[in-house]
Each structure stands twice: as structure tokens, then as C-alpha cells.
Design brief:
Layout lengths: L1 E2 L2 E4 L3 H12 L4 E5 L15 H14 L3 E5 L2 E7 L4 E5 L5 E5 L2 E4 L6 H11 L3 E3 L5 E11 L19 H8 L4 E4 L6 E6 L6 E8 L8 H9 L4 E4 L5 E7 L5 E12 L1 E3 L3 E2 L2 E3 L5 E2 L6 H20 L13 H31 L4 H15 L9 H8 L23 E4 L6 E2 L2 H4 L6 E6 L6 H13 L11 E5 L17 E4 L11 H7 L5 E4 L5 E5 L2 H14 L2
Parallel strand pairs: 1-7, 2-3, 2-8, 3-4, 8-19, 23-24, 24-25
Antiparallel strand pairs: 5-6, 6-7, 9-17, 10-13, 10-16, 11-12, 12-13, 14-15, 17-20, 18-19, 21-22, 21-25, 23-26, 26-27
């Protein structure tokens, strides 16, 4: 019998991201899938899922900590604790792998939930907080640029349009939603700009009307690629249609969409993520996004619960606490995603009242003119508050715990190039990071306080160590060397140049708290707690130990 540490069934985005997250901690993973190029769900609303999966698979294959087995079908689970799975490969040979943890990332009809957890643990997908059922036709299109040579009959050339301007006119940036009258529609660009890919989705009244989906697509799309005027409302002499031979249909299929979520996220040593745990309608692109969040927030917890020597969990007493906090946070996050899907769904599926129509137009006008405050954006507001209102999460209430860090450009101590702020979290093998926030004039005092606090707390090194301390200089200039001290290898300051988005660097401290001096940060970008001085830091470290014991 083979053995590993974590068995992941399913090699879609969620399973692959979990594997790569665990590989960063040097945890051994076996990933099994029965379809080399297949997808468990239709392509993501904002990703090219086949390309995304290919990139992730390549990274998994290259990792010495991952073993990817394609063409394998899981047929049984001989034992629950520790979990083992029986599989059959494409040559009909059978085998058994035993692990410390089993993760089902095999889709909404996958074997882990349907065959293992439903019968023995009663875990099933139930209707979520957003009730929705509908049949949609979803198409992926690849657009080619027409030119005066290939399409001389196109009247836009006489108006001075370039091939790129023609493309931008008919296939504008962003995502676009149409509500009744007419079929509810969601469409827009996705993927790399150079690929010129377009996603087009529209609702059908019933599934039996989707037999000839290509014909339905062209019937619905043709009026939308016919223009009577330009982007400023100036009428053309006659209507202009984008050339159909410049549109390649990569995929066009009907899908039944609903919103469901599991009544429990794990049982004993078997855990569910991705579509195995929840499914979403298409309006807001939350399916894949939620699956990736599942994986990212589970990875560091499994690292702490996986023993590389004895085969048993490291934090035996903390198993349920860690997984229960993960389940609570994921349930809260899925409800947030469902709420956002509901808002977008109402825009798509319901006829808008006059007042809502006027408000939407005012909203878009203010946004185009950059007069709209960020706080009005419901998605940005939801991201900012993170898990602060969730109960049972892995953070300290009242200490900014649960807030989500912003991503900003930084400069480091030895590099002149721009870094992203998540670099702070990636350069340590410890799970958590202690960020010291100070001015240049503070010298080495705050850094040494952080050292003394960690040494005094006697925290296990895989959780927090002296090597996981980072220093963030609030007032360091954008040019010139950072102050030299013991922490020189791990010092950062905001990159304030507008050319790389540095004008928004203040949002980083806004989310942490202006008076905060020490921050314990989880590897998934959420704050465990913030402290204003050494005394509060000692209390936060003690709370961290308690939650892991």
C-alpha cells in the first residue's frame, strides 16, 4: 500500500491550488483525476479555465512534493481514519493509497461527497441562501481583427477606424449585463487581452429549447454585433455588423445553474472544497473564485495538522478548532458570494424599475468620471471587512482580526524593482508573519520588541518564528536605501509612484489600523490580530497559542 500525507481527489483549479499551497510547506500530496484535460464545471466567468488548469498542472508536475495521477478513477474508501482510497487506472489496474487527510475537489457529483460522505455522514449539498435555478447557454468566443484587406466592404474604414478600434467598438472592455425585456444576458472579455476572448451567456426559458445551441447563440448574438451608432451615440449612415467570419465559437453548451452549499464541510479526516462543497449561478463568477478561497484558506491549516514523521496530526487538540474555524469562515464567505451573485442576478433576470434604471446610470456616470468613492462599491466594501463579522473564525475579535490585507506595490531592502505586498508573506516557512510597523526614526526598538515577544511566548516555530518577522517603514522615501539593522533582509516600504498604483498605498494601513504597531498575519492575507504596543502583542501571541491548543 502506498502512503502520502494528503490525498486530493480532483485536479480542477481548487484541487491544484490546494496542492501547490501545501507544496510550499513541503507537505507530500497525491492528486488524482480521471480526466486529463476535462473540466468539472463550465469555464470560469473570469478565467480561461483550460489554460488556468494547464498552468496549475504544469506547476504541480514540476513540484517535488506533488504527484499528479491522471487517468485514475477512485472506486472506494477502505478506511476513514486514517483515510485511504482505492483507485483504478486507465489500464484497469487497481491500487490503494493511504494518507493523513483526504480532500474531495472532484465537483458537484464527485465520488468523495456522493459515495463516501452522504451515506455515512449525511453531508449533502442543500439550497443556499440565494434560491436560483435556471438554464443558460454559455459560449466562449475567440475574435479575430478584421482589416481593410480582409474586409474591404466594412464601412468603418471610411470613417478612419483601425482594426483595433473596430474590435473595441463591438467587443468593449469589462462585463456587460442585460435584463428583460429580452433574455437575461451576461457577456464580456476574459483572459489575456492578446487572445481576444469573449464570454457570452444568456438564459433560456427551458432546457428542451437548447437542442441546437449554435443556432440559438447566433440568433441572440447577431443583434448585439450590429451597430447603428458609435460609442458616443453618433449615428452611422447605415447599420454595421461585425464580420461573422472573424468570430470563432470555441465552446457553446447549455448548463443548468443553481446555488447550493454543503450542510457540513468535513467529517473526521475527509474534507470538501470547490464545487464538491458549493455551486453558484453564473452572474458574478463566484464558482471558481470561492473554490480557490477554499483551497488557500485550508492549505495552511492542513500543514499544521500534518505530521511528517509519525503519521499523526501535529496539533491533535487543535484539529477540530482549526477545521471548525475554516468551515465557519468558508460558510460566511460563500454567503457573501451568494449575496453578490444575487445582486448581479437581479440585474440580469429582473426587469428594472425606472428608479433603479436611473440610479444605475448615475452610478456608471460617476464611475466613468472617477467621482465614485471606493466605499460605494459593494464588492470592495465586502473585501475590506473580510471575516470581521463572522463568528467562530481563526482571529481575535476587537483587534482588527479577520480584516483582509490590501495588495499594494512595495519596494524591498535589496531590490529596486516593484514588489507586491503579498511578498511579505511568502518568504518564511513559518505559517504566520509578524509585521512590525514603524517610522525610520524609531530605530531598532520595535523590531527587538518583536523578537523578545516571540521568544517569551515560546510559540512553535512552524507557527511563528524570529525568521518570520518583517519590518514595514511607513515614512521611508521612495528612493534611496532603507535603514540598516538586524532586519535588513526583510524590510519594506510603500512604493508611492503613481505609475505603479502607489497613490493608493495608504489603504494598506487603513485596513490594519492607524495606531497599530504589530500585526500577526495569516498566510491567506487575513489578520489574526493587531497590537498597539508590546503588552497587547503578548496578549495576541497568547491568544494564538490558545486557538492552536
Amino acid at each position: 500500500m502506498e502512503s502520502t500525507q494528503v490525498i486530493i481527489v480532483g485536479a480542477g483549479p481548487s484541487g491544484l491550488v490546494l496542492a501547490l499551497t501545501l507544496a510550499q510547506y513541503h507537505v507530500r500530496i497525491n492528486v488524482g483525476t480521471d480526466n486529463i484535460l476535462g473540466q468539472a464545471v463550465p469555464e470560469g466567468l473570469l478565467q480561461i479555465q483550460p489554460v488556468l488548469e494547464r498552468v496549475l498542472r504544469d506547476a504541480v508536475v514540476q513540484s517535488p512534493w506533488c504527484s499528479l495521477r491522471t487517468g485514475c478513477t477512485v472506486v472506494g474508501r477502505p478506511t476513514e481514519e486514517p483515510p485511504s482510497v482505492e483507485y483504478r487506472d486507465d489500464n484497469c489496474r487497481t491500487g490503494v493509497i493511504r494518507g493523513q487527510w483526504l480532500v474531495g475537489a472532484d465537483g458537484k457529483t464527485g465520488i468523495v461527497r456522493k459515495s463516501f460522505l452522504e451515506p455515512c455522514a449525511g453531508i449533502r449539498q442543500e439550497e443556499g441562501c440565494y434560491r436560483y435555478n435556471g438554464t443558460w447557454v454559455a459560449a466562449n468566443l475567440k475574435i479575430s481583427l478584421p482589416t481593410p484587406e480582409t474586409h474591404p466592404e466594412l464601412s468603418l474604414w471610411e470613417l478612419g477606424y483601425t482594426p483595433q478600434q473596430v474590435y473595441d467598438l463591438f467587443w468593449p472592455e469589462g462585463w456587460h449585463f442585460c435584463s428583460p425585456p429580452g433574455k437575461p444576458t451576461a457577456s464580456g472579455r476574459f483572459g489575456p487581452h492578446s487572445e481576444r476572448l469573449w464570454r457570452h451567456e444568456f438564459r433560456q426559458a427551458s432546457a428542451h429549447e437548447t437542442r441546437d445551441v449554435q443556432q440559438l447563440l447566433w440568433e441572440h448574438l447577431s443583434p448585439m454585433i450590429t451597430r447603428e451608432c458609435d460609442e458616443d451615440g453618433r449615428k452611422f449612415q447605415s447599420s454595421v455588423q461585425f464580420p461573422r467570419d472573424c468570430i470563432t465559437v470555441l465552446r457553446c453548451e447549455p448548463f443548468r445553474f443553481t446555488h447550493k452549499v454543503v450542510n457540513r464541510w468535513y467529517d473526521k479526516r475527509t474534507i470538501l472544497i470547490g464545487d464538491a462543497a458549493h455551486v453558484f449561478p453564473p452572474f458574478a463568477g463566484q464558482g471558481i473564485a470561492s473554490g480557490l478561497r477554499d483551497a488557500h484558506q485550508l492549505g495552511w491549516r492542513l500543514f499544521l495538522l500534518t505530521d511528517r514523521e509519525t503519521g499523526g496530526p501535529k496539533l491533535i487538540a487543535g484539529v477540530n478548532a482549526l477545521l471548525d474555524s475554516w468551515a465557519s469562515e468558508r460558510q460566511y464567505s460563500v454567503q457573501d458570494a451568494a449575496f453578490f451573485s444575487m445582486l448581479m442576478g437581479r440585474l440580469c433576470n429582473d426587469r428594472l424599475s425606472v428608479w433603479v434604471y436611473l440610479l444605475l446610470n448615475l452610478f456608471m456616470l460617476l464611475e466613468r468620471r472617477r467621482l465614485l468613492p471606493r466605499a460605494v462599491n459593494p464588492q470592495a466594501h465586502q473585501e475590506r471587512k473580510g471575516f470581521t463579522r463572522a463568528s467562530g473564525g481563526f482571529f481575535m475579535k476587537g483587534k482588527n482580526g479577520g480584516s483582509r490585507l490590501a495588495q499594494i506595490p512595495l519596494r524591498g531592502d535589496t531590490k529596486s524593482s516593484v514588489l507586491l505586498s503579498d511578498t511579505i508573506l511568502r518568504e518564511s516557512r513559518s505559517t504566520f508573519t509578524l509585521l512590525v510597523i514603524q517610522n525610520v526614526s524609531d530605530g531598532e526598538g520595535p523590531y527587538k520588541e518583536a523578537i523578545n515577544a516571540i521568544q517569551g511566548a515560546e510559540v512553535w516555530e512552524d507557527i511563528l518564528s524570529l525568521q518570520s518577522i518583517r519590518v514595514y517603514y511607513v515614512d521611508a522615501a521612495s528612493s534611496g536605501p532603507l535603514p540598516q539593522n538586524e532586519a535588513t533582509r526583510h524590510t519594506y516600504s510603500p512604493w508611492t509612484e503613481e505609475s505603479v498604483g502607489g497613490e493608493n498605498h495608504r489603504i494598506y494601513l487603513d485596513r490594519i489600523g492607524s495606531s497599530t504597531k504589530f500585526v500577526i498575519i495569516r498566510p491567506d492575507f487575513f489578520l489574526f490580530a493587531g497590537a498597539q504596543d508590546r503588552l497587547e502583542l503578548d496578549l495576541c501571541l497568547a491568544a494564538l497559542k490558545r486557538q492552536l491548543s
